[in-house]
Sequence to fold (765 residues):
Amino acid sequence: MIRHLLFWGMVSACSGPQSSPSAPTPHRELPDVVLVTLDTTRADRLGAYGYESAHTEHLDTLARSGRLYRRAYSPLPLTIPSHGSIFTGKYPPNLGIRANGDREGSASEHTLTEALADAGYITVASVAAFVTTRQWGFDQGFDQYFDAIPSGRDLWHAERPAEAVVDDVLAWRSAQAPDGPPRFAWLHLYDAHFPYLPPKPWLDEAEQRVYDGELAYIDDQVGRLVGAHKGRPPLFVIVGDHGEGLGAHSEISHGLFVYNATQHVPFFISGPGVEPGEIQEPVSLVDVAPTVLSILGLPALPVVDGRAVPGSEPKPVYLESYQLEQRFGVQAHRAVVWGDWKLIDLGRPELYRQEGSDPLEAHNVADENPEVVAQLRRLLDGFGFEAPQIDPAHPRTPALTAELEALGYMDGAFLGDRDGALPDPKDRLVLVRDVQRLEHLVLEQKHEEVGVLVEKLALQYPDVSEFQTRWAQILAMRGQTDQAIALMDRTLDKDPGNAVLLQGLAIALAKGQRYEEAAQRFQEASELMPFAPKLRVMAVVALLEAPNGQQKAMELAAAYLQEDPSDLGIAGVLGVMMVRKGNPSAGMPLLERAVVADKPERDVAFHVAASAAGAGQVERAQRMLRLELRHHPKNGPAAMALARIVGRGGDWTAQLVLVDAFLAPAPAQYGPSSLAPSPAMRADFLHVRAQALFNLKRYAQAQIALDEGLGLHPEHPELLLLGANLLWQSGEQDAAKLLFEKAKAAKMKWVKSDDQVGPAPKPAP
Fold:
């Protein structure tokens, strides 16, 4: 079942414009609406906002032909909460979503998408990153949702380019009737997020400024979108979800502070019903949905924090980020913007003038204006937003917990004293810089530098649990499991009830091959976090690895499944165990149940595919193998089985794509990946690759793959046979005959029952 994590009503204290229901405008009079959200985009890097070095001509044209909001602010510098505000008109505290992956809830919020659907719109979305997939509820109200994000460097940074996002929407648009109902399309473009890797033409255009190059690339994709809509001009809504620090106030990226670098975002609307002009008053992302519905003449969302601008009285704008407090025990950034002033309320408050005077917030004038500080503090308190409750036992949603476990990374709450005054962030700028540098090093896979920095941070900040868990993970991956376990034990002593740390200890124990102890710790963590079913799976898997632990694993899995028959993860693990023990009549029904999970356990879909293939259901077998590889791309037997099926069908190009995907390096966080295939398995795949290239008559490339394979396995009979065929094809008959005899001799030593992949070339005579 798809979880809708974003749009849930926690608090009824929201205020804002509320319209009585009225008849919607007939759909034939409504324009199409195109919403483009620009992830990680600073307003001051677009030409329309005065940046002279910008290469954003298409965006600038839209801004200047429509209504530009000169001072738009994101309420929170993270993608999931800020997009929640865009679609619901509510501030993150009233949504209960105050960090990426904060928590889950029901789908009771009424969104902008649903309001448009109620008015007769057909709806489509195409998104570019994991953080906007349907897992977080963003598909709510959409008729079609394109969110097939390929596996990337890690969970949070899996993405796809703007070109693919635009392609989805344009293809969908072309399939709609020209005189049909109005259309609402949302496109999420993620390219400006770190790491900045603009394609070369746009990097050259931006004179090697990588961030500007990403924006130039995005701009051209927006130009494609605009060009495709000329025959039926839509209402274009362009808005940034948050910006990027780029070094301002020591913030390299975003998420920790609420300075303008990350909170001042582009926002402009262009199209039917919009008079060109500029809005100078401060506005928030919570104003986007009310403003769009107002322009269209549609009823407002029932309860919002935002307002239609222009057309309503100005309101203070709220901003927050509690990342510093929750993760590091440093004062959180909370801010309010009112008129020309912005207050960041800290132990040493920061007051800045905004538009025209100090937009970069270089001059803190709090000491000179105590009365303004007092006034803005009253406005900030007037929002009534309490600090988010920190509960280490419930740190993440189940799906995210499972993904983070797979990465071996878990961040918990700050373990130090919270009763006294926390340090002002201005006194912890070295920590701020180090934390961001660490994330960049991880993304750049600079493993040695990551290890040095994590060790330093773990020693300097023993009360920051994420540093301890990261250091323990690195130690375990280096084989220093005793040290990793001791570190996690010491950290748990400070907070014995912290299920996240308990989970980290279990992983360290498993890395140290202390599987029965690991299973026990996973079970304890599961009792503390019943909402995270992956922990039960990990307990069973740990027992499977223990000497003579298979029977205990089956008994534990059966007990878990009896306790909760809907646990598809446990059903999958138990089904795989039964099939492997030669009891498919008991295992296959469990696997058929488990294969419909959001992410089936490893080998579940593979065994369903094997059963389908045995029954002659080739199409289903292919579908199940692709499902297996979507979630477990380094499952060698599944990849080989699918490559063989595709090869037998004569599609050697597709076969080549599959093999290359498997042979590509697996993403690794701190060092060489344990997912890398063994030399023998890699040799098998190189044979398939060489065979496919041979069948495609790409002989030189086939020879390269062949040579690499023989370097790993010099007596591989199928590689030797293919080598003979390559020699024969090149006219070296004598050498081919000799190699063919060698292949036959090798075959006698290593009888291989599997069929030849693809149409086998005739043996050399």
Summary: The chain has three domains: 31-303, 397-547, 637-765.
